[in-house]
Amino acid sequence: xxxxxxxxxxxxxxxxxxxxxxxxxxxxxxxxxxxxxxxxxxxxxxxxxxxxxxxxxxxxxxxxxxxxxxxxxxxxxxxxxxxxxxxxxxxxxxxxxxxxxxxxxxxxxxxxxxxxxxxxxxxxxxxxxxxxxxxxxxxxxxxxxxxxxxxxxxxxxxxxxxxxxxxxxxxxxxxxxxxxxxxxxxxxxxxxxxxxxxxxxxxxxxxxxxxxxxxxxxxxxxxxxxxxxxxxxxxxxxxxxxxxxxxxxxxxxxxxxxxxxxxxxxxxxxxxxxxxxxxxxxxxxxxxxxxxxxxxxxxxxxxxxxxxxxxxxxxxxxxxxxxxxxxxxxxxxxxxxxxxxxxxxxxxxxxxxxxxxxxxxxxxxxxxxxxxxxxxxxxxxxxxxxxxxxxxxxxxxxxxxxxxxxxxxxxxxxxxxxxxxxxxxxxxxxxxxxxxxxxxxxxxxxx
Length: 447
What we know:
With 447 residues, the chain is of the alpha+beta class. Helices cover 34% and strands 26% of the residues. It is built from 5 helices and 22 strands. It has helices at residues 2-24, 51-100, 108-132, 137-184, 261-266, and strands spanning 31-32, 38-39, 224-228, 240-244, 251-252, 254-258, 271-274, 277-280, 283-285, 290-291, 296-298, 301-305, 311-316, 322-326, 347-351, 354-359, 367-373, 379-388, 394-398, 401-409, 412-420, 425-434. The strands form 7 sheets. The chain has a 4-stranded antiparallel sheet. A 4-stranded antiparallel sheet has the order 11-12-13-14, with no helix packed on it. The chain has a 4-stranded antiparallel sheet with strand order 15-16-17-18, with no helix packed on it. A hairpin with a 5-residue loop joins strand 12 and strand 13 (311-316). Helix 2 (51-100) runs parallel beside helix 4 and helix 3 (108-132) runs antiparallel to helix 4 (137-184). The longest helix has 50 residues, at 51-100.
């Protein structure tokens, strides 16, 4: 269109010049000289021929001719490429139709290949649209068709991810279970060990943790403990207790009991107990309060480190009476606590063999001591390990064996150390467990 306009302007300019010359011509009378030649005088009007304009028009026409040739070359190239992509689009459409009809088993990789091809064609058609200024109906129709097929593939991929792949994974899992059943057919399966029994080969694995609930005092109270009554023959089998520390991460001033797991989850029917006692003028007596996160419920009593002392406290959950006993030589007030956990100088534990307390002394240079407790808070036996207490994040007891943990990263811990009180032997192992928070406050094994 631009070339036609410029050629028309050139012809009009030439016509105007010729018309100006013709309109200026006049008839004049001449004379004959002595030699017989005709002499005449012509007076031209004061109109000069527009040579510069003519040269400009010629230059523009030359450049326009070059531009037209370049555009024609581009269109020829686009036509060749477009023919190839039209064939690819046809093949792609057929493949999508087969996918839509469920004729083949398609995977996520197939979808990625199809989407890549659509993206290439969409890019080419976008270039065509820009070069032709949206004036070609065929290109516009092709662009709309590519967009439609792209939407269709995305929908198919979403359907596949949400349904087909999930079903296929379930089928694979079912096949694996069937193969296992066929393999184990006829083989005698040993009965699982009873809870509270030590007829097993020791700790082998720990399942993933889960969140039960946020403690009733709120997210700012991040320290403390919770659990069940750890006594194997307890009459309060469904009892759950929660004991968050105060905001200082040190004092256990209150705790709460629930009569069932459902009550724990729903914050229903709580039984609260406050251990501090108001004296006067904002002064409180904390002598019956606990210190640190090492508490445990065992045989309807709560055991904990008495506040600001090396005493062991035993609180009867029914009467509220507190009995205390001094653990001689034991350090306290955050002298040898676990790594990244403050004021846990005393850590109570329970297993199939009874009640234990884990602590340190100056004589053992901070290594973990294992004390076997009776119901009167007397230490009946003691074992000294070679493991430095601030070098571990927590510890617990199973069948008379102490297991200690250390951090792997912010989301995982490793059970790496063990001490068997029956044989006096210690050793290393590696059982990686997940954790919900970066710092583990309490480790318990419920029997």
